[in-house]
Design goal:
Elements lengths: L2 H13 L6 E7 L2 E9 L7 E8 L9 E5 L5 H17 L6 H10 L4 H6 L1 H8 L1 E8 L5 H14 L3 E6 L3 E8 H13 L1 E4 L5 E3 L4 E7 L11 E5 L3 H10 L3 H19 L1
Parallel strand pairs: 6-11
Antiparallel strand pairs: 1-2, 2-3, 3-4, 5-7, 5-10, 6-7, 8-9
Subcellular location: Cytoplasm; Nucleus
Main location: cytoplasm
Organism: Betta splendens
Protein backbone atom coordinates (compact mmCIF):
# COMPACT_ATOMS: atom_id res chain seq x y z
CA UNK A 1 0.00 0.00 0.00
CA UNK A 2 1.28 3.48 -0.84
CA UNK A 3 2.12 5.88 1.95
CA UNK A 4 -0.67 8.20 0.75
CA UNK A 5 -3.24 5.39 0.95
CA UNK A 6 -2.08 4.35 4.43
CA UNK A 7 -2.29 7.92 5.66
CA UNK A 8 -5.76 8.30 4.17
CA UNK A 9 -6.96 5.13 5.92
CA UNK A 10 -5.82 6.50 9.26
CA UNK A 11 -7.62 9.79 8.60
CA UNK A 12 -10.82 8.06 7.47
CA UNK A 13 -10.90 5.76 10.50
CA UNK A 14 -10.64 8.81 12.76
CA UNK A 15 -13.34 10.76 10.89
CA UNK A 16 -15.81 7.87 10.63
CA UNK A 17 -15.30 6.61 14.14
CA UNK A 18 -18.92 6.02 15.13
CA UNK A 19 -20.26 2.50 15.74
CA UNK A 20 -20.13 0.59 12.47
CA UNK A 21 -19.14 3.61 10.37
CA UNK A 22 -15.73 2.33 9.21
CA UNK A 23 -14.58 -1.24 8.65
CA UNK A 24 -11.32 -2.51 7.19
CA UNK A 25 -12.27 -5.61 5.19
CA UNK A 26 -9.04 -6.77 3.56
CA UNK A 27 -5.42 -5.68 3.15
CA UNK A 28 -3.08 -7.54 0.80
CA UNK A 29 -0.65 -7.15 -2.07
CA UNK A 30 -3.68 -6.39 -4.27
CA UNK A 31 -4.49 -3.27 -2.25
CA UNK A 32 -6.89 -2.51 0.54
CA UNK A 33 -10.67 -2.99 0.77
CA UNK A 34 -12.73 -1.12 3.35
CA UNK A 35 -16.31 -0.06 3.96
CA UNK A 36 -17.83 3.22 5.11
CA UNK A 37 -21.47 3.42 6.16
CA UNK A 38 -23.09 6.78 5.54
CA UNK A 39 -26.37 8.24 4.27
CA UNK A 40 -27.56 9.84 1.04
CA UNK A 41 -28.33 13.49 1.71
CA UNK A 42 -26.91 13.42 5.24
CA UNK A 43 -28.25 11.90 8.44
CA UNK A 44 -31.91 12.04 7.38
CA UNK A 45 -31.35 10.11 4.13
CA UNK A 46 -31.35 6.36 3.51
CA UNK A 47 -28.40 4.42 4.87
CA UNK A 48 -25.81 3.32 2.32
CA UNK A 49 -22.73 1.10 2.56
CA UNK A 50 -19.82 2.21 0.38
CA UNK A 51 -17.05 -0.31 -0.31
CA UNK A 52 -13.77 1.14 -1.58
CA UNK A 53 -10.92 -0.82 -3.13
CA UNK A 54 -7.63 1.12 -3.22
CA UNK A 55 -5.22 -0.38 -5.73
CA UNK A 56 -1.51 -0.41 -4.74
CA UNK A 57 -0.95 2.44 -7.25
CA UNK A 58 -3.74 4.59 -5.71
CA UNK A 59 -4.14 7.57 -5.84
CA UNK A 60 -2.54 7.51 -9.30
CA UNK A 61 -5.51 5.31 -10.29
CA UNK A 62 -9.12 5.78 -9.21
CA UNK A 63 -10.56 3.76 -6.32
CA UNK A 64 -13.00 0.94 -6.98
CA UNK A 65 -16.43 1.73 -5.57
CA UNK A 66 -19.47 -0.44 -4.88
CA UNK A 67 -22.75 0.69 -3.29
CA UNK A 68 -25.33 -1.30 -1.37
CA UNK A 69 -28.34 -0.37 0.72
CA UNK A 70 -31.36 -2.04 2.27
CA UNK A 71 -33.45 1.08 1.58
CA UNK A 72 -32.48 1.87 -2.01
CA UNK A 73 -33.31 -0.12 -5.13
CA UNK A 74 -30.58 -1.68 -7.25
CA UNK A 75 -30.94 1.01 -9.91
CA UNK A 76 -30.68 3.75 -7.27
CA UNK A 77 -27.50 2.13 -5.94
CA UNK A 78 -26.18 2.01 -9.51
CA UNK A 79 -27.06 5.69 -9.91
CA UNK A 80 -25.21 6.62 -6.72
CA UNK A 81 -22.18 4.61 -7.82
CA UNK A 82 -22.09 6.28 -11.24
CA UNK A 83 -22.30 9.71 -9.63
CA UNK A 84 -19.42 8.90 -7.27
CA UNK A 85 -17.25 7.53 -10.09
CA UNK A 86 -17.90 10.62 -12.21
CA UNK A 87 -16.98 12.77 -9.23
CA UNK A 88 -13.80 10.75 -8.68
CA UNK A 89 -12.76 11.09 -12.33
CA UNK A 90 -13.04 14.89 -12.04
CA UNK A 91 -10.90 15.14 -8.91
CA UNK A 92 -7.08 15.54 -8.83
CA UNK A 93 -5.17 12.27 -8.42
CA UNK A 94 -4.78 12.57 -4.66
CA UNK A 95 -6.58 11.26 -1.57
CA UNK A 96 -10.26 11.54 -2.48
CA UNK A 97 -12.36 9.04 -0.50
CA UNK A 98 -13.47 11.58 2.09
CA UNK A 99 -14.60 13.95 -0.69
CA UNK A 100 -16.57 11.12 -2.30
CA UNK A 101 -18.37 10.32 0.95
CA UNK A 102 -19.15 14.02 1.39
CA UNK A 103 -20.55 14.00 -2.17
CA UNK A 104 -22.87 11.18 -1.13
CA UNK A 105 -24.05 13.17 1.88
CA UNK A 106 -24.94 16.09 -0.42
CA UNK A 107 -26.65 13.93 -3.06
CA UNK A 108 -30.39 14.04 -3.62
CA UNK A 109 -32.61 11.21 -4.85
CA UNK A 110 -35.93 12.87 -5.65
CA UNK A 111 -39.32 11.28 -6.19
CA UNK A 112 -39.11 12.35 -9.84
CA UNK A 113 -35.96 10.29 -10.17
CA UNK A 114 -37.79 7.26 -8.81
CA UNK A 115 -40.64 7.62 -11.30
CA UNK A 116 -38.37 8.34 -14.24
CA UNK A 117 -36.19 5.34 -13.50
CA UNK A 118 -38.99 2.88 -12.75
CA UNK A 119 -38.91 1.17 -16.15
CA UNK A 120 -35.09 1.08 -16.18
CA UNK A 121 -35.12 -0.30 -12.65
CA UNK A 122 -37.46 -3.12 -13.60
CA UNK A 123 -35.17 -4.05 -16.50
CA UNK A 124 -32.04 -3.81 -14.36
CA UNK A 125 -33.57 -5.96 -11.63
CA UNK A 126 -34.07 -8.84 -14.08
CA UNK A 127 -31.71 -11.74 -13.59
CA UNK A 128 -29.35 -12.46 -16.48
CA UNK A 129 -26.89 -15.21 -17.32
CA UNK A 130 -23.70 -14.50 -19.26
CA UNK A 131 -20.94 -16.87 -20.33
CA UNK A 132 -17.49 -15.31 -20.75
CA UNK A 133 -14.46 -16.84 -22.47
CA UNK A 134 -11.11 -15.84 -20.92
CA UNK A 135 -7.89 -15.96 -22.91
CA UNK A 136 -5.55 -17.23 -20.17
CA UNK A 137 -4.99 -17.45 -16.41
CA UNK A 138 -1.28 -17.56 -15.55
CA UNK A 139 -1.22 -15.90 -12.13
CA UNK A 140 -3.94 -18.24 -10.93
CA UNK A 141 -4.29 -17.32 -7.24
CA UNK A 142 -4.23 -13.58 -7.88
CA UNK A 143 -6.67 -13.81 -10.78
CA UNK A 144 -9.18 -15.98 -8.92
CA UNK A 145 -9.06 -13.72 -5.84
CA UNK A 146 -9.99 -10.74 -8.02
CA UNK A 147 -12.86 -12.62 -9.67
CA UNK A 148 -14.19 -13.68 -6.27
CA UNK A 149 -13.92 -10.11 -4.95
CA UNK A 150 -15.72 -8.61 -7.94
CA UNK A 151 -18.56 -11.12 -7.84
CA UNK A 152 -19.00 -10.33 -4.14
CA UNK A 153 -18.91 -6.55 -4.64
CA UNK A 154 -21.29 -6.68 -7.61
CA UNK A 155 -23.58 -9.27 -5.98
CA UNK A 156 -23.03 -11.76 -8.80
CA UNK A 157 -22.74 -15.53 -8.58
CA UNK A 158 -21.48 -18.17 -10.94
CA UNK A 159 -18.86 -20.69 -11.99
CA UNK A 160 -15.23 -20.44 -13.10
CA UNK A 161 -14.56 -23.49 -15.29
CA UNK A 162 -10.87 -24.25 -15.87
CA UNK A 163 -9.89 -26.52 -18.74
CA UNK A 164 -9.04 -26.28 -22.41
CA UNK A 165 -11.39 -23.30 -22.47
CA UNK A 166 -11.56 -20.95 -19.48
CA UNK A 167 -15.19 -20.00 -18.96
CA UNK A 168 -16.96 -17.79 -16.45
CA UNK A 169 -20.70 -18.28 -15.98
CA UNK A 170 -22.19 -15.19 -14.30
CA UNK A 171 -25.72 -14.70 -13.00
CA UNK A 172 -27.17 -11.48 -11.67
CA UNK A 173 -28.35 -8.04 -12.76
CA UNK A 174 -27.27 -7.14 -16.29
CA UNK A 175 -25.60 -3.79 -15.34
CA UNK A 176 -23.52 -5.61 -12.73
CA UNK A 177 -22.42 -8.21 -15.28
CA UNK A 178 -21.43 -5.42 -17.68
CA UNK A 179 -19.43 -3.78 -14.89
CA UNK A 180 -17.67 -7.11 -14.23
CA UNK A 181 -16.71 -7.29 -17.93
CA UNK A 182 -15.47 -3.70 -17.82
CA UNK A 183 -13.25 -4.47 -14.82
CA UNK A 184 -11.72 -7.43 -16.68
CA UNK A 185 -10.66 -5.16 -19.52
CA UNK A 186 -9.46 -2.19 -17.45
CA UNK A 187 -7.72 -3.77 -14.43
CA UNK A 188 -4.44 -5.69 -14.64
CA UNK A 189 -5.69 -9.10 -13.59
CA UNK A 190 -2.98 -11.45 -14.87
CA UNK A 191 0.56 -11.62 -16.34
CA UNK A 192 1.51 -12.10 -19.98
CA UNK A 193 3.97 -14.66 -21.36
CA UNK A 194 6.89 -12.43 -20.34
CA UNK A 195 5.64 -12.07 -16.76
CA UNK A 196 4.40 -8.47 -17.09
CA UNK A 197 1.05 -7.55 -15.53
CA UNK A 198 -1.72 -7.38 -18.13
CA UNK A 199 -5.45 -6.80 -18.59
CA UNK A 200 -7.95 -9.33 -19.95
CA UNK A 201 -8.46 -7.57 -23.27
CA UNK A 202 -9.11 -10.80 -25.19
CA UNK A 203 -12.15 -11.71 -23.10
CA UNK A 204 -15.23 -12.57 -25.18
CA UNK A 205 -18.88 -12.64 -24.18
CA UNK A 206 -20.12 -15.86 -25.77
CA UNK A 207 -23.75 -15.44 -24.81
CA UNK A 208 -26.03 -13.41 -22.55
CA UNK A 209 -29.68 -14.07 -21.90
CA UNK A 210 -32.38 -13.32 -19.32
CA UNK A 211 -32.49 -15.88 -16.52
CA UNK A 212 -35.99 -17.29 -16.15
CA UNK A 213 -37.27 -19.93 -13.76
CA UNK A 214 -37.06 -22.50 -16.55
CA UNK A 215 -33.58 -21.58 -17.81
CA UNK A 216 -31.51 -22.01 -14.67
CA UNK A 217 -31.07 -21.11 -11.02
CA UNK A 218 -28.75 -18.91 -9.01
CA UNK A 219 -25.68 -20.66 -7.64
CA UNK A 220 -24.10 -19.56 -4.39
CA UNK A 221 -20.79 -17.68 -4.73
CA UNK A 222 -18.15 -18.07 -7.42
CA UNK A 223 -17.38 -21.79 -7.55
CA UNK A 224 -14.09 -22.81 -9.19
CA UNK A 225 -14.10 -26.14 -11.01
CA UNK A 226 -11.64 -27.91 -13.30
CA UNK A 227 -12.74 -30.13 -16.17
CA UNK A 228 -10.78 -32.49 -18.43
CA UNK A 229 -13.22 -33.22 -21.23
CA UNK A 230 -16.24 -31.84 -23.07
CA UNK A 231 -18.58 -34.27 -21.28
CA UNK A 232 -17.36 -32.88 -17.94
CA UNK A 233 -17.88 -29.33 -19.22
CA UNK A 234 -21.36 -30.26 -20.44
CA UNK A 235 -22.13 -31.75 -17.02
CA UNK A 236 -21.17 -28.45 -15.33
CA UNK A 237 -23.76 -26.62 -17.45
CA UNK A 238 -26.30 -29.41 -16.90
CA UNK A 239 -25.90 -29.02 -13.15
CA UNK A 240 -26.99 -25.39 -13.50
CA UNK A 241 -29.85 -26.31 -15.86
CA UNK A 242 -28.05 -24.38 -18.61
CA UNK A 243 -27.47 -27.17 -21.11
CA UNK A 244 -29.19 -25.17 -23.88
CA UNK A 245 -26.66 -22.38 -23.38
CA UNK A 246 -23.83 -24.91 -23.61
CA UNK A 247 -25.16 -26.22 -26.89
CA UNK A 248 -25.36 -22.67 -28.25
CA UNK A 249 -21.77 -21.75 -27.32
CA UNK A 250 -20.21 -25.08 -28.35
CA UNK A 251 -19.62 -23.99 -31.98
CA UNK A 252 -17.82 -20.86 -30.73
CA UNK A 253 -15.59 -22.96 -28.46
CA UNK A 254 -14.77 -25.34 -31.30
CA UNK A 255 -13.93 -22.44 -33.61
CA UNK A 256 -11.80 -20.79 -30.93
CA UNK A 257 -9.77 -23.98 -30.37
CA UNK A 258 -9.32 -24.45 -34.11
CA UNK A 259 -8.09 -20.86 -34.55
CA UNK A 260 -5.81 -21.08 -31.53
CA UNK A 261 -4.14 -24.25 -32.78
CA UNK A 262 -3.27 -22.77 -36.17
Amino acid sequence: MSEAALEELLVLSSIYCGPGEFQLLQQSADGVLFQINSAVGGHVGPDVSLSFHLHPSYPACLPGVSVSSTRLSRSQCQYVRRELLERAAALPREAMVHQLVESLQCMELTEDYGRGEQRVEQRDEEEWTSVLLLDHIRSRNHYIRLLERWTHQLQLTGRLLLGRSILVILQGARPDIKEFCSLLKTVKVDVDSSGKKCKERMMKVLIETPLTSSSGHRVQGLVVREYLSLPELSAAFQELQLIELYEQILPSLTEWHHTGSE
